[in-house]
Design goal:
heterotrimer, A mainly alpha, B alpha/beta, C alpha/beta, A: mainly alpha, C: Rossmann fold, elongated
Chain lengths: 199, 260, 285
């Protein structure tokens, strides 16, 4: 009932021209959400501490060393961030030397993996995949700067592919997907969604 | 703020959609209560789940499941949690261990409860083990690395990904191919589904994931709510066709109505 | 791999199943060589980049721009170049003010990096607090975005450096979405959607996005619908912008590698299909 009540409150605030006093209530609710989001990060930290702390204490074979390193790095970042601020040079140094290279490396693997995945997947096994391959080749040619330099109309073709069939498909897909999302959200507000309550 | 405008400009059509959806939802839920349950076709990826779990049982390896790294209870995460409970029940019935990868810290206690409840419903509460729940945080690459590492170490025969995924889906797909596991995925986003589509064995796209979510709960009321989506979709198709024809003829009535 | 009558694999069998290590090795060479020795392939400018550029060029002195700075470390290499060149354009224009805020917790370090990379605010004759303010990371996602659209001062007390907003001259002149001429969103993933829902849809402000190239296909329909004004996607968009601003940099320099990489992928598709059909025909014989 609480979920439903708060949900209806937010719906009213979004759709109805409400007085300022009503807006104060919903603003407070929004601030509560922001505070809870910040606390969720702390909760995550505590959960990690428990999980990996136990691994270290139990000297879990093949795992405890990695858990110890995780805890050292986690507390290092927290201590530096709290004491010197996240805009400070020490935190920025830690961020640039530890976090950034790893993050960028794993993200940039996508480019490599996609090339391999395209190679073994894009085989003309049936009419649909043949069509897919043709579209993919046009899009590749249009995306590459040299493509439109060699054959200028390719940019127009790629643009048409993106703005007409892609738009049509995406809109249909998005509408259907959002409808599903709306129905699940309404079910959750009405308390019908057991998954959210842990069974 | 004039007394004449009760509703905020530009949001009336959205409100009408919300009211109609809520009314239809209520109607179909009531129908379920009276015993009229809508029929839904079983999607191939859902059929493949049984096959995947049987494969894991035959090979004597665990099944792995993860519902994505969303920090909060988004609609796709809720479907993932339903899938977790369903898989916990199915694996418990077949005597197979289930490994779970968790992203968001807020969802961890709920995931634990769904896992435990699923094992109990499957008749094997002893298969619920807290150490089978692996928390990887909701930081994208920490989560992705953790999942891939777990897959490499445990070599599950079946990997099921249902929920909120971004580009790490391609990492999971290539990893599944490398370790020779059977992979089933469900993702509501079109863009990210593409990565999973080209690398995984079975994929649920967009609203198919939400339909699967209703199937996983097994509740007639939840299954009936899918009919709400279908009715509204047909109505939207009719509006789009009518609006396109009228707009082509120079009449923007539908466009203006939708913009209210 | 299938064996032929002599018990060996043919060249077509091998081409149909190239090990991934070879694919990656060839790709590495194709990408690294033009970065070391540029070829100088042409870079045509697209309409989206021109529209983005013209929108900033058309700003009048006294206009304020809101910069939703949702940077992420993993995508900075791709989006950072576009962000820096757009920020440079904004700072080059006299009288234009910028207020930045991040819904991503990685925003602050990259704001500093952007400013340092383009030479700092003062090198453009601008002053922090008067011409540029950065509110820092604001938690809360769309809830926060909706709140600051209505009332920044009621939502945020201090900027990223701990200065009270009341002490910043610029913040006494801007307090809500209505005070901004347009909005630029450095979008990590789909964060532009949240800003669109909370700023564009209710209030009608123009949103210009700096997205990842892979997200561009999601933005085209929104541009068609008029919800997003324009975008400069990925490093190609950044390269085009650098050329328009007559300030070619790293983005433009990387376009040779991008062109050759695309050609390589197209060749792989063709080779894979030729080998696939050749092995299939052999199997049917």
């Amino acid at each position: 009932m609480l979920m439903l009540g708060l949900g209806i409150l937010m719906f009213i605030e979004f759709y109805v021209d409400v007085p300022d006093s009503f807006l104060d209530v919903t603003k407070s609710l929004q601030n509560f959400v922001m505070i809870i989001s910040a606390f969720a990060m702390a909760l995550g930290g505590i959960t990690l501490l428990g999980h990996h702390g136990k691994s270290v204490m139990d000297k879990k074979p093949g795992q405890w060393f990695y858990s110890l390193w995780l805890l050292v790095v986690m507390f290092g970042f927290i201590l530096v961030g709290v004491s010197a601020g996240t805009s400070g040079t020490q935190y920025t140094w830690l961020f640039n030397q530890f976090f950034r290279p790893i993050d960028m490396t794993i993200y940039s693997l996508i480019g490599w993996l996609v090339v391999y995945a395209i190679y073994f997947t894009f085989r003309a096994r049936n009419p649909e995949t043949t069509f897919l391959i043709i579209i993919a080749l046009f899009t590749l040619a249009g995306n590459a700067p040299i493509g439109s330099a060699i054959w200028p109309p390719i940019a127009g073709i790629k643009s048409w592919l993106g703005t007409v069939p892609n738009t049509a498909a995406l809109r249909g897909f998005t509408m259907a997907s959002m409808l599903g999302s709306i129905v699940i959200s309404l079910r959750t507000l009405a308390g019908m969604e057991r998954a959210a309550l842990g069974g | 703020m004039g007394k004449m405008s009760i509703l905020v400009a530009g949001r009336t059509s959205g409100l009408i959609l919300l009211v109609v959806t809520s009314a239809l939802l209520y109607y179909f839920m009531k129908r379920a209560g009276k015993g009229f349950v809508e029929e839904i076709r079983k999607l191939p990826p859902i059929t493949a789940i049984d096959e995947a779990i049987s494969r894991a049982v035959e090979m004597g390896t665990p099944t792995f499941m993860t519902y994505g790294m969303a920090g909060g209870f988004t609609s796709d995460t809720l479907v993932g949690l339903s899938a977790l409970r369903y898989l916990a029940k199915e694996t418990a019935e077949k005597g197979c261990e289930l490994l779970v990868g968790v992203g968001g810290p807020r969802t961890l206690p709920v995931a634990r409860e769904n896992y435990r409840t699923g094992c109990i419903e499957g008749g094997a509460p002893e298969l619920f083990k807290d150490e089978n729940l692996h928390f990887f945080t909701s930081q994208q690459w920490a989560y992705a690395s953790g999942v891939m590492g777990l897959m490499e170490r445990e070599k599950p025969a079946a990997c099921i990904f249902m929920g909120y995924f971004l580009v790490e889906g391609i990492h999971f797909g290539i990893n599944c191919r490398r370790i020779g596991t059977m992979s089933i995925a469900g993702n509501p986003g079109l863009n990210m589904s593409a990565f999973m589509f080209i690398t995984m064995d079975y994929v649920l796209f967009g609203e198919e994931l939400y339909a699967a979510g209703a199937y996983f709960t097994g509740s007639p009321v939840t299954i009936n709510t899918l009919a709400t989506e279908d009715v509204i979709k047909w109505a939207l198709v009719a509006i789009v066709i009518l609006g396109s024809v009228l707009a082509t003829a120079g009449n923007t009535m539908i466009t203006n109505l939708l913009g209210l | 791999m299938k064996l032929n009558e002599k018990g060996k694999t043919t060249i077509m069998d091998k081409l149909a199943d190239i090990p991934e290590q070879y694919i990656y090795a060839i790709l590495a060479v194709i990408l690294i060589v033009p970065l070391i020795k540029p070829i100088g392939l042409p870079i045509p400018i697209t309409g989206d980049t021109i529209k983005f550029f013209d929108a900033i060029d058309a700003l009048e002195p006294g206009d304020t721009v809101f910069f939703a700075y949702d940077a992420l470390s993993m995508t900075w290499m791709e989006q950072g170049l576009g962000t820096m060149i757009v920020m440079k354009h904004l700072l080059l224009k006299p009288g234009i003010r910028v207020v930045g805020a991040s819904s991503s917790n990685q925003g602050p370090p990259f704001w500093e990096e952007c400013m340092n990379s383009i030479g700092g605010i003062s090198s453009y004759g601008k002053e922090y607090g008067k011409d540029v303010v950065y509110l820092g990371y604001l938690a809360g996602g769309e809830t926060m975005e909706a709140a600051i659209a209505r009332d920044i001062a009621n939502t945020v007390n201090v900027d990223s450096y701990g200065n009270p907003l009341s002490e910043l001259d610029l913040m006494s002149e801007v307090n809500s979405v209505d005070d901004f001429a347009l909005m630029i969103c450095l979008s990590s993933g789909w964060s532009f959607g949240g800003w669109m829902d909370q700023w564009v849809v209710p209030y009608g402000i123009g949103e210009y996005v700096i997205p990842l190239a892979g997200v561009a296909s999601d933005i085209w329909p929104l541009m068609e619908a008029g919800l997003i004004e324009s975008m400069i996607a990925g490093s190609r968009g950044a390269a085009e912008y650098e050329i328009l601003l007559k300030s070619p940099g790293r983005a433009a320099a990387g376009m040779d590698a991008q062109s050759l990489g695309h050609i390589y992928v197209a060749i792989l598709i063709i080779v894979g299909n030729v080998a696939y059909f050749a092995t299939r025909l052999k199997g049917e014989d």
